[in-house]
Amino acid sequence: MGRELREVGKKSAAVFAGNLISRPFNFIFGIAVGRLLGAQIYGEFIFITSFLTFFVTIAGAGLGNGIIALLPKQKTSESQKSLSTHVIRTVFIISAILVAALFVFSRVIADKLLNSPALITTLLVLIPTIPLLSLEHVTLSVIRANGRIKEFVFVRNIFIPASKLILLLVFVLAFRIENIYSLIVPYYIYSTGAIVYIFYNLKRYGYIGQVTKDAINREIILFSLPLMFGGMVSVLTNNIDQYMIGYMLSAREVGVYKVALQFATLSSFAYISLNTAFAPSISKLYHAGKLDELIDIYRRSTKWITIINMLIFGIYYVMSKDLMRMVGVEFVSGASALVIISLGEIINSGVGSVDSINVQTGHPQYSLYTKIIVLVSNVILNYLLIPIYGINGAAFATMIAIMLSNGVNFLFMYRNLRIHPYDRSYLTIFLAMIIATGSIYGVMLFFQRHFLVRIAVACIIYAIIYGAIVLRFAMSSQERDEILRTIKKIIARISHL
Question: Which pTM does this prediction carry?
Fold first, then answer.
């Protein structure tokens, strides 16, 4: 049992370390883009890219997740190379067809789907990013399926976030380009750079080769199609709030909401780190009959990411206005949305990797079913709540969608595997969050200083109170030892990246 757990822990530590590096870059980028360009320009960029992301998912055809699940089943290295190359080539062909179709219907899209004919030029400039992003996603999946987590982490968590921030500062501060092209041109530069680096490593490690007839088989298509539709629904669900805000309100409101969303999802780094490393191991453990080991990893990981999300939520709940003020005064209106969305992140982390477990244990259709339910409810809630409550209505709709998605996925998993991660320690974690939140709320009522000082003091007080309670009452001595070992691994990974 220990070997696979150590392997997942090792890879999770690498991804976790990468996320610790990328989160500050993303956090600073959100502040920089708000202060340098404002909510209107940032909102226009997010509005259109959110719309185009749907077509990136279509181009991917679910083959990224499909190859993660099916590549380990290939018996020879040649068949693995052939399958990987076939998947990459298929994604490129589909994306090229989509680009041609979008150019033909671009004016109709701007008029009817974006509800803004003035955005036609920006739309045309951004359409060619579809094959870039599609290839980036599928090639990263090939890298990940082969266990090359270091390269995956470098691209996703270091190169792209760092390039995005640095190029924004260069274009605005050095070149004085204070319009949407200071976001668009860097978008092309770092996406192209990422693809070049990934293909270099694919060739370097020998992961691509000649496509044989064996690679073009029904299994990966039948397995990936539900994932494609599930991915399309998931992308719509994740972006529908931003799209509907832009369609029903304004691009400026999209910009404010996006910053709140970026802040709120900072807490998801632990969840993402786990899923990135855990997903390939789920399939291996399940098909090898090592269900006990799978359950053990699931229970431990769910508890740890819940602890991290509870830690961050308390800070957001009390300091939301001060946090949004860092970006600019016009963004303070998104403080309530920040709290609502971050509450949804707690719900997201509280059930663990249920979607990945369902998919990798042979039930990709469950992922599709849940995403369809969530999408329909999200669209209806956004339609009803945005006109009344603005971006807070969109945030509430997102939170409900997360609850539905994870709740239904959890029920599917429990029905098949009869497992759950919960024990009494979860109540202790919740009480620790309540006590720590109440403490800093009381202190901040009488601590009227500069908002940056208030944030720093609140974080220190909250971390001390919450951490002390959780370590003492919610964890066993073995878990405390594992945390110390994990921290040492993360520090070691950061020093080697």
Answer: 0.77
